[in-house]
Design brief:
By secondary structure, the chain is α/β, with parallel strands linked by helices. It has 2 domains: about 180 residues, Reverse transcriptase/Diguanylate cyclase domain (Alpha-Beta Plaits, 2-Layer Sandwich); about 240 residues, TIM Barrel (Alpha-Beta Barrel). The strands form 2 sheets. It has an 8-stranded mixed barrel. Strand 6 and strand 7 form a beta hairpin. The radius of gyration is 24 Å and the shape is globular. The N and C termini lie far apart (about 60 Å). It holds the Pfam family EAL.
Length: about 425
């Protein structure tokens, strides 16, 4: 009994080695209830309908530095590294998005963050990881004496459906390390094997959420949402993160498109369909050809039914063939939407580049809009931009009647959210 208690205390102490967020964490002596700030942070994120990402930064040249520094574990470099990471993350991230910054081992740093599917994208996480690495390496070079570490980064999402949040965090941490080091690790091998099985067997499930005509309250279209098989890769974030980090994103998205075409054929549906598509896939040189082959295979489906949603968080800058492929796909009859408009800084630039048929206003603009004249002014501004671009407007994330009433008085075209209907798994087809 005493041994179990001691082990429990040790585990809490290990978990409690937090560097961030210092101001929001309280420590209590282990008198009656042992608190675990990380578990509490992850649990709170899950309750708020967020995902949690575990990001690992490992030192690639650890042994080389260890030889140069002598007693590396007790060297001033370790303290410098922690301080530089903390400063960089405070600069690059919203404080409320950080759950913890933790030095599990001396050869790396682990960052845990909240991820909102409505606000964030995987490309943002990729960019964040690379940016932190670049800034930390640069800042450590400017130390006296300079230190020249080379970092690798990897990330994984904490599984929500496991009975134990702690075991889910530990599993995600091991997988993130394997991703960072790209090593032949049993955990990584298992994950890649599982993902390849998903790809080969096309084990993707579709969910659907209606998009409502605000004026008539009728269903205008359906947004198709993706889920993986039961387990670690069921939720979209882990599914797409593994796809992106293992180079199988294009294969995954093509399976999703084929599943949607199959669904439309099976139900003989003439409904309009919205589907998310990353700029990387649209810019792939094979994409127009592969989509054309799907149209030839499913001849009764019109490209005019399909709207590709391009998330505003995913930058189109530097994506080769993106603009050319966009023109080709438009000539074929497909339509395009800019998703998450208003959530980032590139909304107007993205709209001017793409000239979308649909502009989807992000939930961050819509939430509590009935209480905020500033947010309503932002909506009016986006409506003016949309009219100028010849685009329809979809307001996302409507959750109550008050928010819906603001859309009506501003003559917003379309709306989507839990107030109208939650996403549902497709079993017998799209409801009409």
């Amino acid at each position: 009994m005493v041994r179990c208690y001691i082990e429990k205390v040790k585990r809490v102490i290990q978990w409690g080695k937090l560097l961030l967020p210092l101001a929001s964490i309280r420590y209590y002596p282990p008198q009656f209830n042992l608190r675990n700030p990380i578990l509490e942070g992850v649990s709170a994120a899950f309750k708020a309908r967020h995902d949690v990402a575990v990001i690992v930064f490992t030192i690639k040249n650890y042994y080389e530095l260890s030889e140069a520094e002598g007693n590396f574990h007790s060297s001033p470099f370790i303290k410098k590294m922690k301080r530089v990471f903390q400063n960089c993350i405070e600069k690059e991230m919203e404080k409320n998005d950080v759950i913890a910054l933790h030095d599990y081992y001396e050869d790396g740093i682990t960052l845990m963050i909240k991820v909102d599917y409505e606000r964030h994208s995987l490309s943002e996480i990729d960019e964040l990881v690379n940016k932190i690495i670049q800034e930390v390496e640069r800042d450590l070079l400017q130390q006296n004496p300079p230190v020249r570490p080379v970092f690798d980064g990897g990330y994984m999402f904490v599984e929500k459906h496991n009975f134990s949040i702690q075991s889910s965090i530990e599993r995600a941490h091991r997988q993130a390390i394997a991703m960072a080091e790209r090593k032949i690790d049993a955990e990584l091998n298992e994950m890649i094997f599982t993902f390849k099985k998903i790809i080969s067997k096309k084990e993707i499930h579709l969910w659907a959420q209606p998009i409502i005509d605000v004026a008539t309250s009728e269903i205008h279209a359906w947004e198709m949402l993706t889920r993986g098989p039961k387990g670690v890769l069921e939720d979209p974030f882990p599914l797409f993160s593994v796809a992106r980090q293992t180079g199988m994103l294009y294969d995954l998205e093509m399976i999703i498109f084929e599943k949607i075409f199959q669904q439309l054929k099976a139900t003989k549906s003439r409904e309009n369909i919205f589907v998310n598509c990353t700029p990387l896939t649209i810019g792939n040189i094979r994409f127009p050809r592969d989509i054309k082959q799907l149209l030839e295979k499913y001849r009764r489906i019109s490209p005019k039914q399909i709207t590709f949603e391009i998330t505003e968080h995913d930058s189109i800058d530097g994506v080769e063939n993106f603009t050319y492929n966009l023109k080709v796909l438009r000539l074929m009859g497909f339509r395009f939407a800019v998703d998450d408009t208003g959530a980032g800084y590139n909304s107007l630039n993205t709209i001017s580049e793409i000239m979308p048929d649909i502009i989807k206003v992000d939930r961050s603009v819509i939430e509590n809009i009935h209480k905020s004249p500033v947010k309503e002014s932002m909506l009016k501004g986006l409506l003016l931009v949309a009219r100028e671009a010849g685009s329809l407007v979809v307001a996302e994330g409507i959750e109550n009647e008050e928010e819906a009433s603001v859309l009506t008085r501003n003559k917003v075209d379309l709306a989507q959210g839990y107030y109208y209907a939650r996403p549902t798994a497709l079993v017998k087809g799209i409801a009409t």
